[in-house]
Every structure is written in structure tokens, then in C-alpha cells.
Write a structure and sequence with these properties.
single chain; 340 residues; alpha/beta; Rossmann fold; 2 domains; seven-stranded mixed sheet; six-stranded antiparallel barrel; 10 helices; binds flavin mononucleotide; binds adenosine-5'-diphosphate; riboflavin kinase activity; multifunctional enzyme; Riboflavin_kinase_bac/euk; Riboflavin biosynthesis protein; kinase
Amino acid sequence: MLNLSKNGCSLWVASSAEGLLKPTAVALGKFDGVHLGHHRVIQPILPAALDRENTQPQEQTYSTVVTFDPHPLEFFSGQPRALLTPLDEKVQQLGSLGVEQLVLLPFDKELSALSPTDFVDKILVQQLQCRRISVGQDFCFGKQRRGTAQDLQLLAGKHHIPVTIVSLQTYTDNTPSPETPISTSLIRHYLESGEIKNASFLLGRPYTLIGTVVAGAKMGRTIGFPTANLQLPPDKFVPRQGVYAVRAAIMGDTPDPTTIHDQLGVMNIGKRPTVNGSNLSVEVHLFDWSGDLYGRKLTVQLVDFLRPEQKFPSLEHLKTQIQLDCNIAREVLRVNADLS
Ligand SMILES: Cc1cc2nc3c(=O)[nH]c(=O)nc-3n(C[C@H](O)[C@H](O)[C@H](O)COP(=O)(O)O)c2cc1C
Ligand SMILES: Nc1ncnc2c1ncn2[C@@H]1O[C@H](COP(=O)(O)OP(=O)(O)O)[C@@H](O)[C@H]1O
């Protein structure tokens, strides 16, 4: 059981039946990315929505997101799955929406074998004392994903628990294609192909990398572009390799508790072929900034993709290109700030 407090919002994170805040109003799903479609599923369980709906004074419920850990696809494939929002980031995003509790159901053989009826009776009714449920239209649950959102409505109805089924939120891009449902996989696709603005639009915020600054080869400073090398959570989904225009915040830490917001910069994600690098690195050069960032936490928002990484014939050529990248990034960031 963890009680995490992030960004001034406190969110209770429970991974066992003890100590749950009950009774609950529950949104069920995987919620990787906490994107705009997810917001719509979560909205009906928030206190403000419940207050609006009830004319009579009601028993207080805790707005609770119930999800699975590990991700079911990871459990069934045995392969680690990269996530748009690893746990810390998910907690932060859910907290900022007003969710009070996150319950991580351990997704194991036992849970995956529960019938839809047992899932409702044992988990939602007995353990969570659920009073209201919200799910997306495509929600499936129970053994072999046999239970649908409509089954959930029937089964929960037997316990007089109302279920809101939220239709999939769609969006229209600039192509003549029909409306596309917003989904985690669509956002992953956009991030993989460097279509950062589309990804941000569907997330309702910029895609963000949060990491601790670690030492690199200490070569950046020798070419006039020191770069803070970020160590990301191992399960963080890394977007297309290449150069980006970014906004960053240097998170406060002891002994320096101040958070420095809105630093502009450029980021490179790649293997640095020019210097015969081998491992993937994520490194940020901040404009008009100097100081020591080792050990500090950086939050980096991707604003736009600029170009793929290249192997240059010399460090001098690389230096010239990075200067050009900085000029382009400044312009991209300026236009972007004007638009927002
Ligand atoms: C904006 C930017 C663009 C970069 N582009 C490339 C590139 O195209 N090819 C490459 O080999 N390295 C590229 N790099 C990475 C540099 O090789 C790296 O920053 C340099 O080797 C310093 O590494 P260090 O932080 O480990 O000292 C880029 C870095 C930045 C900040
Ligand atoms: N403008 C800046 N942007 C990024 N890092 C900076 C900047 N100015 C100073 N630094 C510091 O320099 C370090 C990067 O210098 P660099 O020579 O690239 O070393 P390393 O290879 O260890 O990353 C950063 O981790 C940070 O502590």
C-alpha cells in the first residue's frame, strides 16, 4: 500500500485489499496515457459529477480508478510492455483530474481466471464496496475477456449498482478518413512516427519524459552544447529517435527546493553514431542556462519533432548542425507559445 503525493494532489494507491478507502465510485480500465478518452470515462465518478446527479444527500464515495498491474498484455505475452504513463506519472495525472484513489489489481493467474460474475461479486462488491461504475464502451473483463460492458451493467444491476457506459471519443484528423477513436495505440503510433502534435492533441497535454540527470561522456561541454542525460523509468515508452524542440522544468530537490519552470531547449533521442555511441540516450540542452543538473529531476515536454539523428563526418559538422537545430527549435517554440 502506497500513499503518494504528487504535484500538490494526494492520491491513495492501494495494491492489496487492506486499507482501501470505501465505499467507492469506480472507473475501470487500463488507462495507459490518461488521454482525453480516459478523461471521459473517469469524469462520471468524480465528486462534482456525482453531486450534480444526486438531488438527495448521498453517502460519500471515494472516486477510485481500478486498473491492472502488470498490464494484462504483459502478463499474457511475458514481455515487458513500455507505457505512456508509468505508475508515478499515472498517479500524477489521475490526481490532477481529482481522482482520490488508484487501486492496482495484481493481474495474475487467479485474477485472469475469475468469471465475470466473480469479478463483480468478489472484487467490485465485496472488496471495493462499489456504489457506481464507469467504463468505456469497449471494456472487457473476466476470464478470456468474456464479459462486456453490457454484461457488467447486468451483473452490477443485480447489486443495484448503476454502470455508465461511455461511448468512445473520436477525433477527426486532417485527412478525409472517418472519425477515429482516441486510443493509447493511436497515440503510440503518432509518437513512433514523430507526429508529436497529434499525440499531444489526443493526450490533452504534451507527451512528457520525466527522468533523473545522470553523467554521460562529458563531451557535450567540449562542443559548446552541454546536454543533461536523462535516466527514464525502465517501462517508459520512448518516442521516435531524433531531435526535438522541448520545454523543460527542473524539479526542486533538497538542498535546492525550487522548481524552475519553462526552460526551452532541444533534445536528442538516439545512439549518437557520430561519436560511436552504442546505448540509447535521451539528452537535453537547455537554452540560456548554466549550472549543475546531475542528480536533479527534469520534466521534459515534447513540442515538435525536428529531424532524425544522423552520423556526421566530424564533431565540427555535428556542432554546426546542433546550432542550426537550436535556431529552428527557438522559432518552433516561439510560434507554439503564440498559438497556445
Ligand atoms: C540537438 C542535438 C542534436 C543531436 N544530433 C545528433 C546527431 O544527429 N547525431 C549524433 O551522432 N549525435 C547527435 N547528438 C548527440 C551528441 O552526439 C551528444 O550530445 C554529444 O556526443 C555529447 O554527449 P555527452 O552528453 O555524452 O557528453 C545531438 C545532440 C543534441 C543536443
Ligand atoms: N544549458 C545546459 N543544458 C544542459 N545541461 C547543462 C547546461 N549547462 C550546464 N549543464 C550541466 O552539464 C551537464 C552536461 O554536460 P556534458 O558535457 O554534456 O556532460 P555529460 O556527458 O555528463 O552529460 C548536465 O548534466 C548539467 O549538469
